[in-house]
Design a protein that fits this description.
By secondary structure, the chain is an alpha+beta fold. The chain has helices at 10-19, 67-70, 79-84, 139-151; strands at 28-30, 33-36, 39-42, 121-123, 136-138.
């Protein structure tokens, strides 16, 4: 017997945690919308919504932090530390470490690769058009944009109303 169980996507699983909802909470369908925690999200089709992109990879509104700056390597030595004979752990440095900065307080943090060789790239419809491949964003930015759309109630609609500038 096959059970048709619905589970939240990655972004909605993070939003469930953010809003204090059950981990398997999923949006319901109501007409042309999804209903998620009393938010109406306009449907693109029965399974997705359009994402309003806030920026590309290089000019993103989302703060990017290097993994090396959040690793607490106090209990082990990296190859670089062994080679130079000095600790370079910055995570918990009281003067400039991120642990004490408050940068992550009340934030959703998405960890993902932005290394081209990992090929976590998604083609999108927006682009600066300055070079081939400029319409691709890293997966972490895709998820960040989708999550911010829900938090900010900032949705795109399939059929946008026509506005004339001379009105």
């Amino acid at each position: 017997m096959v059970t048709k169980k619905r589970i939240p996507s990655f972004g909605f699983a993070l939003l469930n945690k953010y809003y204090g909802l059950p981990k398997n909470y999923v949006a319901k369908t109501k007409g042309n919308n999804f209903v998620y925690d009393n938010k109406l999200i306009p449907k693109f089709n029965n399974f997705s919504f359009l994402i309003n992109f806030y920026g590309n990879n290089l000019q993103s509104v989302f703060k990017r932090v290097s993994l090396i700056d959040v690793l607490n390597d106090k209990s082990f030595k990296t190859t670089d530390e062994l080679n130079i004979g000095e600790d370079i752990n910055t995570w918990d440095n009281p003067d400039y470490g991120l642990l004490y900065s408050g940068i992550f307080k009340n934030k959703i943090v998405i960890i993902g690769s932005t290394m081209p060789e990992d090929q976590d790239l998604i083609s999108v419809s927006v682009s600066q058009g300055d070079q081939q491949g400029s319409n691709q964003i890293y997966g972490v930015y895709f998820h960040a944009n989708a999550i911010q759309n829900v938090i900010g109630d900032d949705f795109l609609f399939k059929e946008m109303p026509v506005r004339h500038i001379w009105q």
